[in-house]
What does this fold into?
Amino acid sequence: KMDIIEKIKKLKEEKNAVILAHYYVEPKVQEIADYIGDSFYLSKIAVGLQEQTIVFCGVSFMGESAKILNPQKTVLMPDMSADCAMAHMADVETIRKMRDTYEDLAVVCYINSTAELKQHSDVCVTSANAVKIVKALPNKNIFFIPDNNLAHYVAEQVPEKHFVFNKGFCPVHENMCLEEVLKAKEEHPETEVLTHPECPEAICKISDYIGSTSGIIRYAGTSEKKEFIICTESGVRFQLEKENPDKKFYFTKTEPVCRDMKLVTLEKIAHVLETGENEVHVTEKLRIESEKALSKMLELAK
Ligand code: 13P
Ligand code: SF4
It folds into this structure.
């Protein structure tokens, strides 16, 4: 184990590379990352890094976004097949139809989406900034893609706007079971329930806090409570326990696991650093056209 970590460190220096990781990847990978965060933090931090090469330990929309924002850099994915199912759950034809149907419409695209969807959207959001950004938009009508659960959460926070919903969802969060959350609450009544807004509305309703993975970690750190039920992908446990050794974290009996995030391993990181394989490419036209929505997010989230 020591060997592979040493190897990655050495390769990182040789190749002038930096490692970014999402909270959902394996703890072993989080341990060797230079930056760990939620989707918003990772897209912000990707801009302005000194290193020439970014190894993105996450799913494809994350590496793609990093490349779109930093075209002069080399972005490498440890596993090219690590993809987010939700990223594909909207379509350009429907976007066009909504633009024809509604006047004064903004197409708001959750960052968990393909570059093609971003290309046809007005602004990107993440779970950390969606409410703020939708509020800041001048438009009355909002077509929110791809996630239906996040859209409903945002709509509730921004009642002055009219939302058009889309049927996308995260399979990991959508399959979380309210009964299991209630059961955990019964077993540990002194807990607060901290939930990602990709969860079904019924789970959000019984939660004490709703927010991004970073938001959940921050909340758990500052809350007076000592025990929490965490309703998001179980990779966040690593940072929660590391930052709060005196607190306890429970998950539902069926632990939510994103198989795609777990495809990232130390061996694959070393391999792409060594070979330069799995480089992210985006055609220049798609890059320029999808960059607008991402840059607008970074601007409006300030
Ligand atoms: P965050 O915005 O918390 O990073 O969530 C990303 C994600 O993929 C949730 O499933
Ligand atoms: Fe996509 Fe869900 Fe995995 Fe997040 S947890 S990357 S939304 S499939």
